[in-house]
Amino acid sequence: MAEEKAFTELFEDQIKDLYSAEKQIIQALPKMAKKSTNPQLRAGFEKHLAETRGHVARLEQIAEELDFSPRGKKCKGAEGLIEEGKEAMEEFEGDVLDAALIGAAQRVEHYEMAGYGTARAHAELLGFTKAVRLLQQTLDEETKTDKKLSQLAESIVNVEALQEA
Questions:
Q1: Number of Cβ within a 10 Å radius of residue 6
Q2: pLDDT in tens, 102-134
Q3: What is the number of domains present in the chain?
Q4: What is the pTM of this model?
Q5: What CATH number does residue 136 fall under?
């Protein structure tokens, strides 16, 4: 039983970490949208901001269902990735900045996908079926966003950035 309690605490810690990451992303996305020059990229960031608010709500729902607070942890991984994105916003401009923003956003997406996948797997082992469903829903959205960013980069933004450079 001590092992299951410790594993449940690990799961709760992962939810707190994801919650912190999502809250930081909510702060970063409007700045990224404002700095992007490509209208499709800007719209993508704005759409993902709305989705991210939904991710926060799902994490709050999981925490409420399992009777713990999602607050109280600082996700240092997301903080570092977001900081790298801020540095890109200071170093580049125009189409090259758009390419840098996509790269920064995809690093964040991949970090989140790893976190949501792990939390979902742990929720499955613990028998938290509602949490599994909510985490999978978010994981699917993160994966879809990552694919859209790749398509935008490969078909438009990187090509324009190369021509500008």
A1: 10
A2: 999 999 999 999 999 999 999 999 999 999 999
A3: 1
A4: 0.95
A5: 1.20.1260.10
